[in-house]
Amino acid sequence: MAAPLADAAGAVKQALEQALAAAPGDERLRRAYFDHLAELSACHVGLASAVLPELPFPLHFRCASTDFAALRAVFEGGRYDFAPARPPRRILDLGGYGGYGAVFLAARFPTAQILTVEPIATNFRLLLMNTLPCRRIAQVNAAAGRVTGRVRVAGTREGDRGFELAETTEPGAFTMPAYTVPDLLRLRGWDQADFVICDIAGFEATLFADASPDWLDQVETLAVVTHDHLVPGAATTVAASLGPDRFAHVRCGEIDLYRRIDAPPEPAFPAPPALALLDAGPRRLALRVEHVAAEPWALFLFEDRGLQLHPNAPGAPPATAVFTISGSGQTRFTVTLAHAGSGGDDIVFRIIVRRLADGACLLDASRRVLPGASGDWSEALPRVEGAHEVVLQTDMAPGSASHLGAWARWIEPRLT
């Protein structure tokens, strides 16, 4: 009888996912979906997945573990819905667990780079499964510590998310590396992080044992989960390190949020965020293609930053990629164009931006590129607000004899 029950549960899950994709803003439907996933997690073993409409890839969790509770707290419970001091550029996620927080933050802050740190090997394998689709997230299998060295597991009281760590000088198979925050930043090639998340099952009492570590000087916002029930006095230790002369403290659910008091003020008229058509994060723009040949070389993405859009034969309609965007005040289109072919004829690259509400054309411009050449292209725009289409086209230049070898590439197209 187990298999039919599993099949029935899977069918319900799929139906809920399809309904949620059609109505992503329906809170009652979202709650029903998470309730069903909770039942699956409680009654099954093995790996399961959540398919959420805001993400282009599933998130995995281990049934009969604490994974689903962590996923739900982030994506339904609003665990990280608070606002940092300003939109962050670099996020350091200490205690990344299954990667749920890192994926959420990557979707929320589409220009931020994220480093997520998780010491437990079994958790880290899950974290990799969930974060590898997002190239803006880097992962380190280690602990964040007061000193660079080794730590050991001292116990666990909260399942897979509650491993308690202790510093150790003894090597061994049951120890793991620990790095100071500056060393973790150097591993990523950073000199600072402006937003730090810390949820490390009581080890925060060790990490913040120094009264005022230097790495805090560049941090604008910290979100710390303190675990006094695991390590009595942990909250007091953290608060002492983040003094009220430098950080304003508020409580957001289970999180202690510290915002730097002397952070530079936001500009009076902040620049709109850059809107990448080819985003390396989990939230990709809608894309449709027209007049693209059914060949593997005709259209493909590379490195989450470039689009190969091969022109059709001379005289045929232009190969076209259409992105649907939601503008927030952007006033310029920028891209690097490349004709990667070593021979052949010239390519004409064309960009069109039009408003969906009334079809008004905001930009229609083109550039001709010789074989083997590349270069930056920038065009001014009226303010782009709301729903628009951005159309990229490639065509063979007038007088061309063939489209062979016409490797037309749009690299990092974006609105700024």
What secondary-structure arrangement, pairings included, does this model have?
Blueprint: H1 2-22, H2 27-43, E1 47-50, E2 59-62, H3 67-75, E3 90-94, H4 100-108, E4 113-117, H5 121-131, E5 137-140, E6 143-144, E7 149-156, E8 163-168, E9 175-179, H6 181-188, E10 195-198, H7 204-207, E11 221-224, H8 234-241, E12 247-252, E13 255-260, E14 275-276, E15 286-290, E16 299-302, E17 306-309, E18 319-339, E19 347-355, E20 361-369, E21 374-396, E22 408-415
Parallel strand pairs: 3-4, 3-10, 4-5, 6-9, 10-11
Antiparallel strand pairs: 1-2, 7-8, 7-9, 11-13, 12-13, 14-22, 15-18, 16-17, 17-22, 18-21, 18-22, 19-20, 19-21
Helix pairs in contact: 1-2
Keywords:
416 residues; alpha+beta; Rossmann fold; Jelly Rolls; 3 domains; globular; disordered N terminus
Write a structural description.
- The protein is of the alpha+beta class and 416 residues long.
- The chain folds into three domains: 78 residues, no CATH class; 181 residues, 3-Layer(aba) Sandwich (Rossmann fold); 141 residues, Jelly Rolls.
- Helix content is 21%, strand content 36%.
- The strands form four sheets. Strands 14, 15, 16, 17, 18, 19, 20, 21 and 22 form a nine-stranded antiparallel sheet that branches. The chain has a seven-stranded mixed sheet with strand order 5-4-3-10-11-13-12, sandwiched between helices.
- Helix 1 packs antiparallel against helix 2.
- It is globular.
- The N terminus is likely disordered.
